[in-house]
Amino acid sequence: MPPAISVKNLTKTYASGLVALRDVSLDIAPGEIFALLGPNGAGKTTLISIVCGIVTASGGEVMADGEDVRRNWRATRRKIGLVPQELATDAFETVLSTVTFSRGLFGCPPNAAHIERVLKDLTLWEKRHTQIRELSGGMKRRLMIAKALAHEPSILFLDEPTAGVDVELRRDMWALVRALRENGVTVILTTHYIEEAEEMADRVGVMRKGELILVEEKAALMRKLGKRRLTLCLQEPMAALPPELAQWRLDLAPGGLELGYTFDAHDERTGVPSLLRRLSDLGIAFKDLHTSQSSLEEIFVSLVSERVQEGLPA
Questions:
Q1: How many CA atoms lie within 13 A of 58 on its CB side?
Q2: Dist. CA 46–CA 75, nearest whole Å
């Protein structure tokens, strides 16, 4: 079975000279949920726009479900649903009519049952006769997803799908995405909400300045780059770190009641046992301790941040 999306050596340079994509290659498997992370200007939307046939690449190859996007634009576009960042709809159309019209744009025969199912899944059925101008921002975001699903695509792109929506709606959309994947739909999402990728994605890609700097299974990425942190709650406040503890590079919380130690959990010599022995030798007692794993957000920030490494804005 061919990849749902296959991108080879993709480049894009705009007439202004801006290089938006630099030699990007990526395969996304059928039925996968793939999260594309990166700061503004990283090239995420340009990549999506090229795959969807909206923007022409300067070089490289893009395949959707085994077909060349440039040569077979109409056939490949029929397989793709796109939820853009912008909320672009006819304000005076009703919910039902605009979703039905979206289906017809792709040459699909009428299917009232499918439209009803999509609107119910997105909690829009009760609003089906409501004009779009009367919907809330969150409902309009749901409507954009309904329009993208109207023609029953096998590949769905979600470009910042939950931007500006509340937590409850965001979790409803996560549930919808999981249900789509269970029905065989491949989902590619870009997001600034790290918890979105952490909650749903099978794999994560990180972009920076037009380059795909990392593609990894989410769990493997967190194992590879994530650190663990040991926090010790002291029985008595400590005014300053004693020099005898210097080799562990600890940090002392304000108030002096917590010691923090960050370590690589996969290193056989974490330093934790020797640290605990040293604390005992020094008579430093603690009443509690716990460890925590680095979040995907912390990993992401460390990958895209260049302020420290290069003195440049991330």
A1: 14
A2: 21
Give residue 66's Cα distance to chain centre: 25
Contact 238, 252 (CB under 8 A): yes
Residues 40-92 pLDDT 10s: 788 998 999 999 988 999 999 999 999 999 888 888 889 999 988 777 678 89
- Quote the tokens at residue 230: 């040991």
- Give the C-alpha distances (Å, rounded to integers) separating 231 from 88, 289, 291: 48, 6, 6
Q: How far apart are CA 285 and CA 127, in angstroms?
A: 62
CA pair distance 62, 13, nearest whole angstrom: 16
**Domain assignment of residue 12, given as a range:** 5-223
Q: Which amino acid is at 184?
A: G
CA dist list (Å): 305 to 34, 151, 209: 22, 40, 11
285 with 198, same domain: the answer is: no
**How many Å apart are CA 160 and CA 85, to the nearest integer?**
6
Which of 33-37, 136-140, 298-302 is predicted with the least confidence, judged by mean pLDDT?
298-302
116 and 251 within one domain: no
Closest C-alpha among 115, 51, 109, 39 to residue 77:
51
- Give every CB contact of residue 14 below 8 A, 6+ residues apart in sequence: 20
Strand-pairing partners, residue 203, are 34, 217
How many structural domains are present in the chain? 2
